[in-house]
Amino acid sequence: MSSIKTPTPKGFRDIQPELAKKRRGVINQIVEILEEAGFAPIETPTVEFAKTLKGKYGEEERLIYEFKDRGGRDLALRYDLTVPLARYVATYNPPLPFRRYQIGQVFRGENPQRGRWREATQFDFDTVGSSDLEEDAEIISTAIKAIKTVGVQEPVMIINDRKNFEGLSKAVIIAIDKLDKIGQEGVIGELTNQGLTKEKAITILQSMRNKKPTEDLEKIFEILKDLGIASNEFQFAPTLARGLDYYTGTIFEIRTPSYGNLSLGGGGRYDNLIGVFAKKSIPAVGFSFGLDRLIDSL
């Protein structure tokens, strides 16, 4: 008798035992590294009030899954683990600096692609309550150490500073951030579609490519060397922008040559996000592994 197949919705999947065991093994290895570094686990709800999430993600906000409950309240499935962390800190006021890690499902209504699903597992770790650049370097070095431990070969953390984009509109920044995905002509096309002349678009793109590391980045690079991170394990990337609105300073993504230009994880400094909920300034910096892509790269 043939079995009846009941499909899952597009972008959602069942995880078979072999893959589930592999995922658990990778998680356990990273958890060990994070706990040795002083990060503690927390958990937050899968469902948040929609207003908690909205206004934090830029153009990606359209990918949030929103719905109403039986009481008519506007709710949403969490889009990432960072905004819920900001709400958590504002709610419980943990002693600072607060170092946490969290593993959880996030939901994005995007087109599935290699290593990307509409329901995905993120693995985040953050330091909240310190503006010291050593914390940026510690987050970066810990991410590199973790990804090497699980077996990723030749990882490279590409790093930039959102301050390098000062004076440019959000739309221009978003276009430049796509350079690795759509190429120079694609970026120029997007910029001209915004009303810029081709010459102006070329000038802006060339100007960004010629940017130098900011003073903050130079300090972080020196700290990374002191932490034992090899010079070929990180590099300055002047056109890296990352799309989320809440980043304020250092931004970074980790890649490996065997997986092309696709990011296995990323993060940065977000000194204003927690203040949206706490009504006071609380700096923070963190990193998020996309577990599905990380596993796929192995």
Feature tags:
298 residues; alpha+beta; BirA Bifunctional Protein, domain 2; eight-stranded mixed β-sheet; three-stranded antiparallel β-sheet; globular
Write structural notes for this entry.
There is one protein chain. By secondary structure, the chain is of the alpha+beta class. The chain has a single domain (17-165, 213-297), classed as Bira Bifunctional Protein, Domain 2 (BirA Bifunctional Protein, domain 2, 2-Layer Sandwich). Helices cover 38% and strands 20% of the residues. It has ten helices and eleven strands. The strands form two sheets. The chain has an eight-stranded mixed beta sheet. Strands 2-4-3 form a three-stranded antiparallel beta sheet. The protein is globular and about 60 Å long. The two termini are 37 Å apart. The model has no long low-confidence stretch (mean pLDDT 92).
Chain-wise SSE layout:
Layout: H1 17-36, E1 40-41, E2 47-49, H2 50-53, E3 66-68, E4 74-77, H3 82-92, E5 98-107, E6 119-128, H4 133-149, E7 156-161, H5 170-177, H6 179-193, H7 198-209, H8 215-226, E8 234-236, E9 250-255, E10 265-269, H9 273-278, E11 284-290, H10 291-297
Parallel strand pairs: 1-5, 7-8
Antiparallel strand pairs: 2-4, 3-4, 5-6, 6-11, 7-9, 9-10, 10-11
Helix pairs in contact: 1-4, 4-8, 5-6, 6-7
